[in-house]
Design brief:
The complex is a heterodimer of chains A (326) and B (324). Chain A has 326 residues and is α/β, with parallel strands linked by helices. Chain A has helices spanning 17-27, 33-54, 71-74, 111-118, 132-137, 147-168, 187-198, 218-222, 239-246, 270-281, 302-323; strands at 6-7, 78-89, 92-104, 127-130, 140-141, 172-176, 204-209, 228-231, 254-258, 289-292. In chain A, α6 (147-168) runs parallel beside α7 (187-198). The mean pLDDT of chain A is 95. Chain B is of the alpha/beta class and 324 residues long. Chain B has a single domain (2-323), classed as TIM Barrel, CATH 3.20.20.210. Classes of the chains: A alpha/beta (326), B alpha/beta (324).
């Protein structure tokens, strides 16, 4: 019997109502940092318990302490700060970070929460970082002379944090690069920067990339310097599988495949998810195929997120049973 | 030389100034205020951004597109045959627009922006230009379920835009501008692009401006000079190569010189902008230059946009002195 089809999630979970409220109170100065941190730990316990209950194999801590995935690091790094409000769409605004000086790592930003989460479960908890390209791409830059210079400087900083996670015992370190699909022509720079972060890290490395037109840059994606590619796929009709099929001898990594669209309120059926998994098994052996949702779950409600994960786990169990995968 | 902008302007200021429009939209969405009250806040904010552009010293302003959700939706949703769907990333930016879906014949039934235009003129001491999304970009960013061809879709939008452009002209707009970033990403579509622009601007006797941003016009120039337009606005930040491309043939239009980076908060120095104008003078004399940011200002926080406009105007006067 072959093994494989391990399950995981991309990173973020919905913040429970009490935590949302507490974050607002903290922002308004009506709650202390320590009071907020206590509620973040409470929510993290709930996130871990949910994943345990569902039987997910590789756990995430849920990012209860993070608002925006770039701003969280920007607030802590030397050389970065939060800037003014910029509109993202509709009536949604965010404080866009600004690189104001030479980037420098000063202290661990993610290790304490990772340790806390890993202390709650026997299963491995992923260390999750925002990648250098995305950090720069989603910020203003008032310091460096080119995007390349800024991205490579950021890579040094993120590498240091990745090393801290590995040193603390993280067996999986995930470096998210959702912005990598913005400009496929920059994939070489994405790859060079990721290589700086992952080189000789001593943990299994993963990068999460959102959907884009990867046809012209497939070789570069297939050779990104990580062990596992985590791709948003359900919301693009599993297009990426077609590329893998075309380049069968050119894809040797593990693939974590998104099977649940995280931007819809409706939940896929077990049969839909099973069909997606079976399509992937036509091009990859189960040992190299991981199953997860498309993207972070933070934009869903707690119930929607749990509902989607339940369907995903049911589909994986049925496929394993039908195909005799242990 | 004139100083101007390309289109939109940040809708809300930062603290301690209140985010009036954001709050009003939230209250409207919760049903706490009606459409009339929301409209009143939009009016107020439009006057505010007109004042900011005038205070910065601009010669030619826009209404800031304060009422616009994004660069396409506001116009597209007012056409019959078009509905509006989910969020899609806007080019290589970290902002999103709602996808127009063409479900039937695209038909212009009434002016979409004329009342806004009249309002802006009434409250501006400076001339106001009317800015619309171009037919090609509208078609490229739409999901076409009706025409089954990009050309069919683009020409239908061009027809609708022609009605709107004429209505704006009748309302007194001295300049009617089309924004067409998409053509820079699909240069092979130039023939179709040309047909669509010709159709959209047919019979328009106001000054006709075409602004292309997020890249350079290599491969499109000098053919763009054949278009029936008076002002060709280009991006000299993301498309710095335009300085060289435009030397391939004598430039016969007024040059929209997008020199100030509207996508980064780093402030240009007066010297940098004057240097850009000096280089631009090799393409067109300063009397035929409309100096502006490289694209709409909404990628910036409000205060950064305002500061950049003031710096741009200061640089324009400096250039008149030192380059005269």
């Amino acid at each position: 019997m072959s093994v494989g089809l391990l399950t995981t999630t991309v990173g973020s979970f919905p913040k429970p109502g009490y935590l949302q409220q507490a974050r607002n109170q903290y922002a308004a100065g009506r709650l202390s940092r320590e009071e907020l941190a206590e509620l973040e730990r409470r929510a993290t316990r709930e996130v871990i318990a949910l994943q345990e209950e569902l039987g997910i194999d590789i756990i995430v801590h849920g990012e209860m302490e993070r608002g925006d995935m770039v701003a969280y690091f920007a607030e802590q790094l030397e050389g970065m700060e939060l800037g003014g409000l910029v509109r993202s769409y509709g009536n949604r605004y965010y404080h866009k970070p600004v690189i104001t000086g030479a980037l420098r790592w000063t202290e661990p930003m993610t290790v304490e929460m990772w340790r806390f989460a890993q202390g709650l479960t026997q299963k491995p908890v992923k260390g999750i970082l925002t990648g250098p390209y995305t950090m720069v791409e989603w910020s203003f830059d008032e310091h460096y002379d080119s995007r390349r210079e800024a991205v490579l400087a950021m890579a040094g900083v993120i590498r240091r944090e990745a090393q801290e996670l590995a040193k603390a015992g993280a067996r999986f370190v995930q470096v998210d690069e959702p912005a990598a699909s913005t400009r496929p022509e920059d994939m070489g720079l994405v790859s060079e920067a990721l290589g700086i972060v992952t080189d000789g890290l001593g943990a299994k490395t993963i990068t999460h990339i959102c959907y884009g037109d990867f046809t012209p840059v497939f070789d570069q994606i297939a050779n990104l310097p990580v062990d596992q590619l985590d791709m948003e796929m359900a919301n693009s009709g599993y297009d990426f599988l077609g590329l893998i099929r075309q380049h069968k001898d050119g894809f040797h990594k593990e693939l974590a495949m998104g099977v649940m669209d995280v931007h819809t309120h409706t939940t896929e059926t077990v049969d839909q998810v099973k069909a997606g998994i079976k399509r992937a098994l036509e091009v990859l052996p189960p040992a190299r195929l991981y199953i997860d949702p498309d993207c972070g779950l933070k934009t869903r409600t707690w119930e929607e997120a749990a509902g989607k994960l339940r369907v995903m786990m049911q589909a994986v169990r049925e496929v394993k049973q039908e195909l005799g995968i242990g | 030389m004139l100083t101007t902008v390309v289109g939109n302007y940040p809708k809300i200021p930062n603290r301690p100034r209140p985010a009036r429009l954001r709050n009003a939209i939230n209250r409207f969405d919760r049903g706490e205020i009606g459409a009339e009250e929301l409209r009143a806040v939009e009016d107020e904010v439009t006057r505010e951004v007109i004042d900011e552009q005038v205070d910065a010293g601009l010669d030619l302003i826009t209404d800031g597109q304060v009422r616009w959700e994004d660069e396409q939706t506001y116009f597209a949703r007012r056409l019959s045959g078009v509905s509006i769907d989910g969020l899609i990333r806007f080019f290589d930016s970290n902002t999103y627009y709602r996808e127009p879906v063409v479900q039937g014949p695209v038909t212009w039934t009434e002016p979409a922006t004329v009342a806004d235009y009249r309002f802006a003129v009434e409250h501006s001491p400076r001339p106001v230009k009317a800015v619309l999304p171009g037919p090609y970009t509208l078609a490229r960013l739409s999901r076409d379920e009706h025409y089954a061809s990009l050309e069919g879709c683009a020409m239908a939008y061009a027809e609708a835009l022609n009605h709107e452009a004429r209505a704006l002209q009748a309302a007194g707009a001295p300049v009617v501008q089309l924004n067409e970033p998409a053509i820079l990403k699909h240069k092979a579509d130039l023939p179709l692009f040309q047909r669509a622009i010709v159709r959209a601007l047919e019979g328009v006797s106001a000054q006709r401006a075409l602004y292309l941003y997020f890249g350079d016009v290599y491969g499109l120039y000098p053919q763009l000079l054949d278009l029936p337009i008076d002002v060709l606005g280009l991006d000299f930040v993301a498309g710095a190569r335009n300085f060289d491309v435009l030397k391939l043939a004598p430039f016969s239009k007024t040059l929209g010189l997008g020199l100030v980076d509207a996508r980064n908060t780093r402030m240009e120095s007066v010297e940098q902008i004057v240097e850009g104008l000096r280089r631009a003078r090799e393409i067109a004399p300063l009397e035929r230059v409309h100096l502006s940011p490289n694209c709409g200002l909404e990628f910036l926080p409000r205060e950064a946009a305002q500061a950049k406009l003031a710096r741009m105007v200061e640089s324009a006067s400096k250039a008149q002195e030192v380059l005269a």
